[in-house]
Every structure is written in C-alpha cells, then in structure tokens.
Specification:
This protein is α/β, with parallel strands linked by helices. The protein is built from 22 helices and 7 strands. β2, α7 and β3 form a beta-alpha-beta unit.
C-alpha cells in the first residue's frame, strides 16, 4: 500500500487542521488542480484518486444503498471498518473519500513506520477535537496487520468509545492477522480485485481527465489489453504503468505495446484469455504435468501468471489434475493442490506463485495413475445406461417404524463384527454386482492398494483362501 510519503503526496494535505485547529468544511480551500498532462509532481495514481463515492471504480458490492460505507458517509455515523483486499483495490481511496465527503479529520498511520506512541498521540488529539468542536476523526491505519498485538491493543479504547472512526487496511487474512477484540468491534469489508472492465474505465479516465494525462497521449487497443493483463486487478499498478508509458512517449503520440514494454520493462505475453491461447496453454500445462516434464509445466505456469491469468483458475486445474492423473499413486498430491488453492485465497499473487509452483513440481514428479477417473467414469457410464436396480434389501434403511415388517435390513452383517472388518455379502445392486470399476496400477503408493483390494474382493465374493 502506498503511503503519502512514498507517493509524493504533500505532508498534511488531509490532516492540516489538526495542526492549526479544526477548520469548518466551508473554510477549507479546494484541492489545487494538478498540471495537465504527465508533468504533475504527484503520481498519476494519487492525482486520479476519487473525490466521491460515485467516482470509485469497482467494489459495487460495498457501495450500494444501505451498505456500511454509504451509512458512514450519508448518515455521518461513527463506525469502525477493516478493509481486506489485494493491493490497488481501493482501501486507501475509500478511507480518504469518507474523510473528504464527511468533512472529518483524516489521519493516516502506516503500520510499517509508526508505533504505539504515534497511535496514542493521534487518539488523544482526536478526543480533544471531538470534545472541543464535535468534529470526528477518521483514523486510517494502513497495513494494520503489521502491528503486533500490543500495538493493535492500543487502538481498542478509541474504537470501543468511538473517539475515532477507525479504518484499518490489510492485504492479509484479518482472521489471522488482526486481534479478535479489534476485529469484533469492526465491520469486515472484503474488497475484490478490479475486473477488466473496471481497469479499462480507470485507464480511460486517466487518459482524458485534466487531473490525469489530459489527452496528452493516446493508448493503442493492443497496448490497453496488455496493460490490463499486467495490472492483475490492481488499479494503482495500472496507473503507475500508464504514467511510465506516457513519460516514454512524446506528447500527442500513441502508446503501443512496444512503448509500454519499454516503460514497464516486461515483455508482452501473447495470450488471449478468451481465445485459443487460453485453452492451448492450459492444455499444454496439464499435459506437461501428466508427462512428468516439470520444467515445461513451470514454463506454462509462468506464462499464465505473467499474462494475468486468474490464479484461482490455475489452482482449480491443479486440484482436478491431482486426482485425475496422480490419484492414489500419491494420495498427498491432492492435499498439496488444495493447500495451494487455499494459499491463493489467503495470500494472492505475486506471492502465491510460489505455492502454485510447489504444487506443480509435486504433481509433475509424482507417480501417475488415472485409475480414479477411470473408476468413477466407468460407474457413471453404467448408471447412465440404466444399470442401477434396487438396493439390496439387507442394506436398506431399517431405522424407521415398520421397516422390519417389509424386510429392510434383514440379514445385514455388521462388518466390524468380523475379522479384518470385511465380511462376505452383496453390496451392489444385482445389475452391476461383480463389476470392477477401480483397477489400481502398480505405480507409487497405489501398488499397495492393488494387493489390499485383491484381498478385500476375495472376501466379499467368498473366494478367499480359507485354509
């Protein structure tokens, strides 16, 4: 998350009143308009920061009528919020908009550089301001997950007594990174990565708006597509790359893919998420894992990540592959794939690339077996052919009154009463009795199941050696 110091935003732009007393909203001078084009001192992402909720792009699920953010603004209700989402999704933007629209003092604290002393000083100042003038304070703590327990504890009195409207921003799962007392006193709002349409709106506004590039440059459609892919749902990254490209291009020029590549120093990946490349690359990815070529699989993983493919889509394919092509040859492969998918949700890109790579390596090097998918598809095939039939009477539910009178459950043998927990009796309907859907291979751990299954089937069918 970009802090004011990092972004070049002038010190005290939002919190000047705290140094010279509270100024009423009408007395505050309007924000100065930055120079047109790309020569403004402030970064483009800062200049284009929305000034009202209606200017916020994306996060429609948080900004509709009756939502907590709307109530905080429209009814000027003091409340505490924790905003959880990936970088560049609007956490700082929402906090600053709330402050501007409601004419509250806005104090920003960075958990990276500020400590308990600063937190307590700002809370004391907010209490005095509230008591003397009635003016409320928005205390925005950026990257609140970086505060330790003692530092987060220091926020509790102000939050509980509503001396401030606390807004904490975090890219980490707050259930793991924010203390329970603070989380229980706050509303948790989840922000989503911006979609492609949202990012295009951000780009178009920045190109045309006088606060942005003010028409100084144009953007080629192919370059716009590439910029959206590079952004990965991050509006701030989008504007940063666009500004860099505008500085490389001359006034009145068109930014094409070559200019954009020079500006961001990343090669364009030829990859259409809606076209053949999407299906070709994911197909090659899975087939490389199936073929145990770990290097090729990592290449295709890198191509998808670099092209902006949804990491959740990649993770889902790995989960399917873990059972389809590895299966019982290495039962831990599925655990690894599921863990990688969870890591994608908890961490997100770019860090989750490491978790995805670990799963790709595990699945690529694991012994392979398609016995699981063959088994379930064989069973489904028979069912679809009409090979079903009634459930054997001794397996039917016998718990309800009258079940015994119609023979349900009669003759059922309780497996735990027999040696090895296996007893001869018919489980499948007559139509498929004796069918063998699961045929384990002798690859990896599945070799053990080959022998186990043979013994079990021999007991169930009465062919076991009774000597």
């Amino acid at each position: 998350m970009t802090t004011r110091a990092e972004s070049g935003e002038p010190e005290g732009l939002f919190d000047a009143p705290e140094r010279g007393g509270a100024a009423p909203a009408a007395a505050r001078p309007p924000d100065p308009a930055p120079p047109a084009g790309g020569g403004a001192e402030q970064p483009l992402a800062v200049r284009m920061r929305p000034r009202a909720l209606d200017e916020v792009v994306g996060q429609g699920h948080l900004l509709g009528p009756g939502t907590p953010i709307r109530q905080l603004v429209d009814r000027d209700v003091p409340m505490s919020l924790v905003l959880w989402g990936p970088p560049g999704t609007g956490k700082t933007t929402l906090a600053t908009v709330v402050s501007h629209v409601t004419s509250r003092r806005f104090v920003e604290i960075s958990a990276v550089s500020d400590g308990v002393k600063r937190v307590r000083a700002e809370i004391d100042l907010a209490r005095r301001e509230l008591g003397m003038t009635g003016r409320q304070t928005v205390l925005f703590v950026d990257e609140v997950h970086r505060f330790n327990k003692a530092q987060q504890d220091a926020l509790l009195p102000a939050v509980e007594n509503r001396w401030v409207s606390f807004i904490g921003a975090t890219t980490e799962n707050p259930f793991f990174s924010v203390i329970s007392p603070l989380l229980s006193r706050s509303l948790l709002l989840t922000l989503e990565p911006l979609g492609e349409d949202d990012l295009r709106e951000v780009i178009h506004r920045a190109l045309a708006d006088e606060r942005g590039l003010n028409g100084a440059v144009a953007l080629d459609p192919a370059a716009e597509d590439h910029l959206v892919r590079l952004a990965g749902g991050d509006a701030r990254r989008t504007l940063t790359y666009l500004e860099a490209a505008a500085l490389v291009a001359e006034d009145g020029a068109v930014i094409d893919v070559d200019v954009l590549e020079k500006a961001v120093d990343r090669a364009a990946v030829r990859y259409d998420r809606e076209g053949d490349q999407h299906y070709d690359v994911i197909s090659a990815f899975i087939k490389s894992i199936r073929g145990s070529d770990v290097d090729a699989a990592l290449h295709y993983l890198a191509r998808m990540i670099e092209a902006g493919e949804d990491a959740r889509f990649i993770a889902r394919r790995l989960i399917v592959h873990a059972s389809e092509d590895v299966g019982m040859a290495d039962p831990t492969a599925l655990q690894t794939a599921v863990a990688a998918a969870q890591a994608v949700e908890f961490v997100g890109l770019p860090e989750a690339r490491i978790n995805l790579a670990q799963a790709v390596i595990h699945l690529s090097l694991a012994p392979k077996s398609n016995a699981v998918i063959t088994a379930v598809d064989g069973a489904l095939g028979d069912v679809r052919k009409g090979l079903a039939g009634p459930v054997p009477g001794h397996l039917r539910d016998a718990h309800y009154k009258g079940a015994a009178k119609i023979g349900h459950g009669q003759g059922y043998k309780y497996a735990h009463d027999h040696p090895g927990g296996v007893v001869r009796q018919q489980y499948a309907p007559d139509a498929v009795d004796g069918r063998e859907y699961y045929r384990p291979t002798r690859h990896g751990a599945e070799a053990r199941f080959t022998e186990v299954l043979a013994r079990i089937r021999s007991v169930l069918r009465g062919t076991a050696d009774r000597r």
